[in-house]
Structures are given as C-alpha cells and as structure tokens.
Amino acid sequence: MNSKNLMLFVVGLLVSLSVASGDSIRLDGVLGNSGNDGSTLVHFEGTEYSTNGSSSGLGYDRLGALWSFGGTQNVLRLSPDGRMLGDFPCEKKHHESRSLVVVGDLVVLRSGDRLFTLPITAPSGTEPQEVDRRVEEISLNAMDGKIGLVTAAKVVGIYDPTSDEFVEIGQAAEGDRINTVDIFEDGEVVVGGTWSYQAEREREIRPTPLGSLHQVVNGYVFEFGWHMTLSRRNLDYTPEPGVVYGGSSGYFIGSLPEDGELYLPRGMAHLGEDRYAAVGPIGVIHLLRYDEEKQAFLLERRLGSIHFPGTVVLDDGGRVWFYSGFWNWSDGPSAILKGETSFNSRDWRAVQGALSENGQVIFPFLYRGTPKLMHRPYDEQSKKTSSTVEELPENPTGMVVYAQENGPNVAIVANEAGDAVRLLLNPNGGFRKTDASFDLDLGQEVPEVTSLARSVDGRLLVASAGEIVVFEESEAKISPVSRWNSWEGDQFGGKIYITESEGVLWVSDTENNRVVCFRIEGGSADLLAEFQSEGLETSLSEPQMIDAAGNRAVLVDWGNQRLIKLSLQ
Fold first, then answer.
1. Residue 16, beta-bridge partner list
2. How confident is the model at residue 188 (pLDDT cuts 50, 70, 90)?
C-alpha cells in the first residue's frame, strides 16, 4: 500500500479569544454508574482484570444485598436497585485468583491461599478478618451454613465459617484440577466438577463430569462459558435445558444476545422467585429474570460502574456508545447496554471514536495484537465490522473523521507523541487505504495528544499537554498555525480533551474538573459557557474523553467512574 509524507511548517500565530454570554451547560443525567451520584456511587478499586487473575462468586444476603468483587482491591455491597451500600478493602497480589460466597451472616473471601470473613452488617470500610487457614479453593455456594473447601495441602472437607470448624472427608491427588468446588445437601463435595467426596467412602468420579467453571444456584448447576454463556444443568450436571443466556459462541444454534461486559460469567446469585444476578470478569452485574416459556434469562438492569475510561461516541439521536453497546439519551444510571455484542474495546484505553458519514461508530482497537478500525452500526450484532490497518500509530489516542467535498471520507488518527496517519474511508466507515503517515509538529517538549477535532472552516484541532494546537491541512502538508490555552483571566490545566459539533468546541479540562464551550469560527474562539458540576452532589473528578453531537455532549467523569450527559442551552 502506497503512502506519502506530508510536509510540516510552523507558523507562530495566536488565536483571537473573546467572551460571549447568554449560554449555559445543563446537566441531563448520569449513565453507566448504577449508584448515580453522592454516597451511593459505585466505585471499583483497581480494574486491570486482564492481567491480575480471576475473581469468582456473587453473594446475596438475607438483608437483600448483593456482594461482589468491585475491582482488584475491594469488595462491594450493592442494593439490587444499583446503589452502593458498602465498600470493603480486599487487595490481592498480582495474578492471584479470588472467590466469594455468602454463608449465613458472613461473607467468606478467598484471595490466593488466604481466607477471610466479613459480617454482612459490617460498616463500610471494615477490613475483612483473616482466618488462620491456607486454602486452595472454596465453593461458591453454601449448604446449611457450611461450604466445601480444599486446603493448600489438598485436603477436601466441609467448613463452617461461624465456628471455624473443618471436617475432613477426603484427599485430592496431585495433578487434580481444583478450579471449582461444589457442596450438595447430602454432604457431598465435588472438586473440579469430576471427583465426588463424601464422609466414610472413597472418592468417586461423577458419572457426568463438568470441568468448566460453574456454580450451584437454587437447585441447579449453572455452567459459565465464553460469549456470556450461562448453561443450566441439574445437580447431576446434565443439561436442563442447556444454554439459557448468551451463547453466540456456538453452544446454541440460535445465537442468543450477549454483552461484552459479561463475556465470561464468574458468579451467580438467586434473588428469589424468577430473579437472578450474574457477574462477569470486570465486576459489572446483570439482574436477570428467568422466562419459563422461553427457557431463557432476560436482562433487566445493569449494576456497577464504568470500569475504564473507554471510547464514547454520541450520535444525533442521542445514542451513546460505550465499550460493547450503547445507551439512549433517555436512559438512567442502571440502564442496560443495548445492541449487545461480544466485541469490547479493552485493548487500547482512552481512544477517541467518531461517526461515519452514514452514522456508524468508528474507532481504532487491537484484536489479538493486530491494529484494526471498528466500523459498525450502534445496534448491529455482527462481529464482521472491522478492517485491519497496519499503519495505525502505536497506542492511538485521538481520532477525527470528516467528509471531503469531492472524494472519500478522511480519518486522522494520532497517538500521544503526535505520530499520525491519514486514512481514506468508505461511506460506512470501512477502511479504503492509507493516504499518508506523518508527525504532528506540536512544538512541545513533551507532547501528550489526547484527542482531535475539526473546525467548521476545515482546521485540524489537536489537544496536547493542556493546549489546543491549530493546523491547516492541504493535499501536500499539514501546518501548525496557532495555539492557545488561555483566555481572559483563565486557562486550561495541563490535560484537556476536545470534541466539536456545529461550530462549538467542547473542552474537558481534566485538572480543573470542568467542561468549557467555545464558538470557533474564522480563527477566533468565543467563550460560550462553563460547567463546574452544577446539579451534581459529587463534583466532577478527573473528567476525560468527551464527545458531542448537536447541542449535546457525553463526558467520561473518570474519577467517579460514570458518564455525564450535558446539553448547551
């Protein structure tokens, strides 16, 4: 594929700034954090799940609260309506796995080979009490106030956390897989879904082994699989009826919907009658209702927060893309993601997205190490909507897409250092070819490009190191012509993110915890309005990516792990 280098020239001009009045930025609500605002905000502490081992288990206590790992450093107590009721420290070492189960009035936690307990009535912030035992694994279900447990010495037994009594019933062999432990009503403990142990008898192999991750819940065994697959089995591990949630991995020919936030379920809880909850590897919880007629779970509510400051793309209809689906503008804090797909954008953090000419979501991402460009409708379930683009800069951060008067659409993608590429796109956002690779001459000792925008008069705007650097683009060159970071008595902090819509530049000022709007036209920028958390109980904290469409914008309020909906009035 041919490409050409763009010539770069430096022109030292300053943008003309003035102050306008009469506009205001209104708060329109919260998305992505079921706790919404104030003391009930859900907050995950440490969220690098992909490199820090697995966390399994989801508990439901007699007081009506859910217990789940909220990150790699904490445990959460949540109300089923999404509010955070308590936050408890539970830091684990790198690559350790963890398990959690509610047993009567205690939460039992395993982190690595350590065992802890925590009363379900403990005040928020209480540190779990370590038990003097070393363990390999615990069951994710309890029976009559007891759990199944395998010690670090591979002794299999039944454990009562209230009395700290452990009754040995067998010995696992070297080489046995101890990834799951189940306990049943008759005192049977099954390890790895294969070996059955019971007092006063030799261990036996289960007639129908189940080696995959699973959990005993409400008289059934639920098997966990990739692509959000939940398969219901009876207590003999035989399907009854089989896949009841997710399943586009091929387990089920009908390919039920799936959500990338729950791509591999790690725990379940029964909330009474036909109501259940399931948790995935990033800590987001799905509240489910079982439909007997359809023999399938139906998703009703999403609990948790946004787990990383990912791509957000807003369209003219108010749909907000995040991670693996979208929310409507009218949705509330605990609304489910729609347009479910297994695709998730965890590989590159904080990368800017855009819309194609016909309204498709576009953004760069890595798929198993291969740089690609995503182009897909908001509600499309197909996964064949990306193109390989080897020329994408390493670890891209900023992206802008625009139409040419006579020619294909153009996308400019840049990384933090200012390494950039200009791509030609089809109307649906599909990659056509690489037009040029170049370096943005930012005139900064340490560039920190976060985002790109384009003014109505065709200038490229680059947010880097707290400045907006303005470039003029022609067929042969991209030239910096001006830069600015201040206006009458005020200035940006050291990190900003930008987006443009209908001649208005929205600026997310990270260090100053605010959003500022300017009217940009003909080389001038007029201050329109500023948002400093008006209407919020919990003020903005480290706001990052922002995207606008029409008079609306969506902001990643990362310090509070939520999205904020704003409109310019």
1. 524
2. very high
| pLDDT exceeds 70 at position 1 | no
Q: What one-character-per-residue DSSP string does 118-167 give?
A: EETTPPTTPPPEEEEEEEEEEEEEEETTEEEEEETT-EEEEEETTTTEEE
Amino acid letter, 272: G
Nearest C-alpha neighbor of 84 from the set 120, 124, 121, 45: 124
Query: Which phi and psi (to 5°) does residue 293 adopt?
Result: -65, -45
* Angle value at C-alpha 322, between 448 and 536, nearest 5 degrees: 80
Residue tagged 């019933």 (tokens): 169
Q: What is the pLDDT of residues 372-420, one digit of tens each?
A: 998 888 876 655 578 999 999 999 999 999 998 888 999 999 999 999 9
DSSP E strand stretches across 32-105: 55-56, 59-60, 66-69, 74-78, 84-89, 98-103
What is the model's pLDDT at position 547?
99
Residues in contact with 125: Cβ distance below 8 Å, sequence separation at least 6, in sequence order: 86, 87, 88, 89
Q: How far is CA 446 from CA 12, 443, 465, 466, 496, in A?
A: 19, 9, 8, 11, 15
Q: In the chain, pLDDT over 90 holds for what percent of residues? A: 75
Is residue 31 left, alpha or beta, with left meaning phi > 0 and alpha meaning psi from -120 to 50?
beta
* CA–CA distance, 182 with 169 (Å, rounded to integer): 14
Separation CA 146–CA 141 (nearest Å): 9
Residue bearing tokens 């109300």: 79
Say which DSSP state 179 is in: S
Rounded Cα gap, residues 315 and 547, in angstroms: 9
Instruction: Give the per-residue SS3 of 208-252.
Output: CCCCCCEEEECCEEEEEECCCEEEEECCCCCEEEEEEECCCCCCC
Residue 534: partners with Cβ closer than 8 Å, 6 or more residues away: 27
User: Residue 98 is which amino acid?
Assistant: R
All residues at 6 or more sequence positions from 122 whose CB lies less than 8 Å from its CB, including other chains: 86, 88
CA distances for 394 relative to 271, 374, 435, angstroms: 46, 16, 17
Scan for tokens 């959690």, then name that residue. Answer: 100
Task: Answer for the pair 372, 359: CB distance below 8 angstroms, yes or no.
Answer: no
Residues contacting 21, CB < 8 A, separation 6+? none
pLDDT at residue 2, rounded to an integer: 37
In this structure, the chain runs to a length of 569
Q: Please give the order of strands across the beta sheet that includes 361-367.
A: 354-355, 361-367, 370-376, 386-388
Cα-Cα end-to-end distance for the chain: 47
Most distant CA atoms of the chain, gap in Å:
87
**Domains of the chain (ranges plus CATH)?**
4-30+306-568 (2.120.10.30), 42-303 (2.130.10.10)
Alpha-carbon torsion 129, 131, 137, 143, what sign? negative
Q: Tell me the two tokens of residue 385.
A: 């909507």
Mean pLDDT throughout 469-477?
A: 84
Q: For the residues of 397-444, what is the DSSP string, one character each? A: EEEEEE--SSS-EEEEEEETT-EEEEEEE-TTS-EEEEEEEEE-----
